[in-house]
Amino acid sequence: MTADQILAEIREANLSYLMLAQSLVRSDREQALYRLGVSEDTAVLIDMLTPAQMMKMASGNTLLCRFRMDDDVVWNLLTSHGKSAANEGISRLHASILMAGRHQEAA
User: Fold this and answer.
1) Are 39 and 33 in contact (CB under 8 A)?
2) Is the pLDDT of residue 73 over 90?
3) N or C, which end of the chain is more exposed by having fewer CB within 10 Å?
4) Rounded Cα–Cα distance for residues 33 and 21 (Å)
5) Distance between CA atoms of residues 34 and 81, nearest Å
């Protein structure tokens, strides 16, 4: 992949993320705060973005979204290969609880 292709992919991901975020915020703010991992103030800003503002923000060369699994515990829970279906479900639930707790700490 060339540098230009990577930048085009980043811009497309940014626009998709902004459109999804705004749709989530407008349809169910509480769920959006949890699923996006953003604060109420950020949700208000996302809600007020015009299409032109979203296009301008998306056109940058920096990815606007980020992984919320920023430690080994969550990564290991989410990538528990080879475990039974029941254990995998429990691992995913545990990872969701950890990430939700981090959202509350950030808010």
Assistant:
1) yes
2) no
3) N
4) 9
5) 26
**pLDDT at residue number 8:** 96
Is the same domain home to 71 and 61?
Answer: no
- Please list, in sequence order, all residues whose beta carbon lies within 8 angstroms of the beta carbon of residue 12, skipping any fewer than 6 positions away: 58
- In angstroms, the CA 28 to CA 54 distance is 20
Give the span between the Cα atoms of 47 and 13, in whole angstroms: 18
Q: What is the pLDDT of residues 28-43, one digit of tens each?
A: 999 999 889 889 999 9
Among left, alpha and beta (phi > 0; psi -120 to 50; other), residue 39 is: beta
Q: What is the CATH number of the domain that holds 37?
A: 1.10.4000.10
The three state secondary structure string of 5-61 is HHHHHHHHHHHHHHHHHHHHHHHCHHHHHHHHCCCHHHHHHHHHCCHHHHHHHHCCC
What is the span of the domain harbouring residue 102? 67-107
